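SAMPLE LOG
Freezer: B-3
Tube label: C17
Construct: single chain, 195 aa
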Amino acid sequence: MARNLQERLEVAKGPRARIADNEALIADLKAEQERLEAARDQASAESVDFALSDADRDEAAAKAARLDRTVKSLGIEIAAVAALTEERRSDDARKAAEAEKRAALTERDEIAAQFAERVPVICDELVAEMHARGIPANGLVGTIQAHSYRHMKIPVFGGIGRAWPIDLAFILAAKAQEMTEQGRKTKRLDAEASR
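STRUCTURE (predicted):
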């Protein structure tokens, strides 16, 4: 094996190896392996060539055995570098996911801090607005109650029903409807299959 490849293998197994360098090394190792396989096959063919002398055939057989060992060791090194490269790639992905999570948590904390600052001000503004409009503290205007945030109903913006408070009756009715339709479909498919 070329000295350059051995040096690159040592670097690839070290802690400072880069994924792109390892991928290039794998390609070079495979090319070297293919070159040595061709040389091994040639030497193996010469080792059984009856036209050559016994000494030449023995030398070709020894060369083929050496080349075969080198080809196998290159295969082991290729697998090892590929495993290290994949491990580094997954480490990089994990580190990127952790950094993204930290950024999201930081953003969440900033928003929560802003919310904590704004909510008391907003509540004071709402109370002042209730007083300015003449709504008493109990929220009743005549016989009609002014809704507070605790009693607010928020619709599902992409469909039917409420997002808040959760409308369990609606969810159960929708699930029952879905199961009924599924049962009808199954019966229809069974009827078609029995024909």
